[in-house]
C-alpha cells in the first residue's frame, strides 16, 4: 500500500494562530492499518495523548452498529462515512507539491492556490491518531482483522469485497507553524490545539433531532413507514390550504394545549416501532439497518391496517374539533363549547394505547402463533367505554397532576400557597406504560382477583400521593376507576 496520498493543503485561523491541515483520500483498508486511536499510541510516547481529553472507545458500538452498517449488503450497495479528523504524533508528514501549469486557462480561476495541490507522504516516523471518527476506525479495523483484542471476544463480520477499496476523506492536522516558519509547534502548544479541536468536534457538535431523523432516515424502517403513512393514508394528508387543518405536526415532538393537530410525527414513529417490535419480535438494533424492500412493504401493510383501524374506531379522532380536546381545565370550570382534556389526543395517551395493544398482541400470539388484525380489533372492542377525560378517576393524579405556577419544579411535591395553579402531564419515559397498565386494568386484563386489585390500587395511589392529593379525593377517584372497569367487564 502506498504511503503517498493525493490531497489539498489548507490553512484556517487568524494570521497569528493558523492551523495547517491536509485534505486527503485514503482507501478504507489502508486507513484501518495505518491509523490508531489515541489510547493505542506507544506508551513511551503517550505523554501528549495522556493529557488530552479523549472519548472512550465503546467496542460494542464500533463492532456492532458501525460494523454491521458497513458490512450490510444494501440492494443498491450504498454506504457512506463522514471525514476522519486525525492528528500527527512524533513529527509532521512531508508535503510534496504537484506543480501545475499556471498559464493553463483551466487553472486561472484559482491561480493563487496553485501550490496547494500535491501529495502527502507518511514517512513512518510519526503516528496518526483519530480525533474524530474513533468508532468508525475501530469498526473498520474490526472488519479487516486489524484488532486482535476485539477478534478474541467477537465473531468477525465478513466485510463486502469492495469495502477495502472505498475512498475515504481524511483531514490531517499538522503541527506546522506557518507564522514562525518552524518545523513544528512545541508539545504544549500542539497539545492545547488538539484539545480545543477535539472539544469543537465533539462537545459542541449539534446532533440531529428525532424529527429530522424521521424525515431523512432511509435505513430505519419505522421512519420510512412514518413518511409512507403520511402520504398513503388520506386522513393524514394535508392539502396545504390554510382552510384545511393538518392532522400531524411534522415539526415538533410534543403537543401543547389548544393545538389543532391529532398527533406528532415523532409519536407516529414511536408507535410504529412499538407495533413492529411486538408483531415481528424485532429488537432495537433492527431499526439501525435497512431491511429488504419486501420486508419494508410487508411490515408497512400491517402497520397501515392498524392505523386505519385506530382512526376508524376511536371516537373523535376522525371528526372532533381537535383544538378543544386538549384543555387542562377542570370539568367544573369548563364552558359549554364541548372542550375536554382527552388522553388519547396527547402523545402519552397514544403511546400508552400502543403499548397496551402490543401487550395484547404478544399475549394472543402465544396462543395463535401468528398475528392477525382481529387481535387488535378485540383489544379495541371496549376502547370507547373508557372515560378518557384526564380529570376523571382513571387518570387524574395518575397521568395528570396539579402544580403551583410559582413552584412547578419542587422536587418533594410540596407547593407554596398560590391561588393560581397549572396542570401538567407526567413526562417521564415510563408514563406511557402507566397508561397501558391502566387500560389493561380497566379491561380486566390483570388484577382479576380482589388481592391483585388491591395491590394495583396501592401502586396507583402511591403516584397520587406524591402530588399531595387527599385520601378523600383518592378514594373518590378510585371509585370512579372501578366504575369504569365494571362498565367494561361487568365486575
Helix-and-strand structural type: alpha/beta
| Integer count of domains | 2
The helix/strand order is EEHEHHEEEEHHEHHHEEHHHHEEHHH
Rg over CA atoms, rounded to whole Å, is 30 Å
How many alpha or pi helices?
15
Largest β-sheet summary: 8 strands, mixed
Q: Using DSSP, what is the number of strands? A: 12
Percentage of residues in DSSP E strands: 5-15%
Helix content: 25-40%
Mean pLDDT across the residues is 81
Return residue spans where pLDDT drops below 50 for at least 5 consecutive residues: 42-56, 407-419
Distance between the termini: 78 Å
Could you walk me through the main structural features you see in this protein, from its secondary elements to its overall organization?
The protein has helices at residues 28-34, 47-50, 59-71, 134-143, 148-153, 187-202, 210-216, 221-232, 265-280, 293-313, 347-368, 374-379, 431-442, 450-466, 471-489; strands spanning 4-12, 19-27, 35-36, 84-89, 94-97, 117-121, 127-132, 167-173, 248-249, 263-264, 400-404, 421-425. Helix 8 crosses helix 10 (293-313). It is α/β, with parallel strands linked by helices. 32% of the residues are buried. Helices cover 38% and strands 13% of the residues.
